[in-house]
Amino acid sequence: MSSTSTDICDVKAGSTITMEFHEEESRSSRAIEGKHYGPCLVYMAPLASNGKGNVWFKIFEEGYNPNTEEWCIDTLNRADGQLEVVIPADIADGEYLLRGEIIALHLAEKVGGAEFYPNCAQINVVGGGTAKPPGVDILQIYNEDDPGIHFNLYDGYDSYSIPGPK
């Protein structure tokens, strides 16, 4: 993926896609440094919106699992930077922006310390339904003092509230 790419990938609704996150362009590196614990989130928005306004809806989220004491970052690094996500089976056919995101919380004990690592692609969904989920403004989904953004990894915890819409 590249910020200058104009390719649009055809994706069948209900299928599993793989998004990749890597520290380096070689694609042979892990997704992110191992101590950068935090959630992984994936959003979609109609391409015609250019991502502006209340158009983004969440299709995937994974945060902290208290049973395994692992974060999505652990899962992602174990999979060599690959994150499998299911495109909703009932989503309306059409072209969409797809935004994967890692939020690193290693400095988030301070307000404003969370680090955001987005990754975007353009897809054309085929074989879907009629669903057009309500959206939110991607620029308004997080506040720096939200519990899932302002979070202390070093103070002991047994749960985590994933930020953003459901």
UniProtKB/TrEMBL annotation:
Catalytic reaction list: [(1->4)-beta-D-glucosyl]n+m + reduced acceptor + O2 = 4-dehydro-beta-D-glucosyl-[(1->4)-beta-D-glucosyl]n-1 + [(1->4)-beta-D-glucosyl]m + acceptor + H2O
Main subcellular localisation: secreted
GO cellular component, one term: extracellular region
Gene Ontology molecular function terms on file: metal ion binding; monooxygenase activity
Keywords from the named record: Carbohydrate metabolism, Cellulose degradation, Copper, Disulfide bond, Metal-binding, Monooxygenase, Oxidoreductase, Polysaccharide degradation, Secreted, Signal
GO annotation terms (biological process): cellulose catabolic process
Limits of the Auxiliary Activity family 9 catalytic domain: 7-156
Enzyme Commission number(s): 1.14.99.56
Enzyme class: oxidoreductase
Family annotation (InterPro entries): AA9, AA9_LPMO
Cofactor(s) needed for function: Cu(2+)
Compartment(s) where it occurs, according to its Swiss-Prot or TrEMBL record: Secreted
Family: Belongs to the polysaccharide monooxygenase AA9 family.
Entry protein name: lytic cellulose monooxygenase (C4-dehydrogenating)
Record lineage: Eukaryota, Fungi, Fungi incertae sedis, Zoopagomycota, Kickxellomycotina
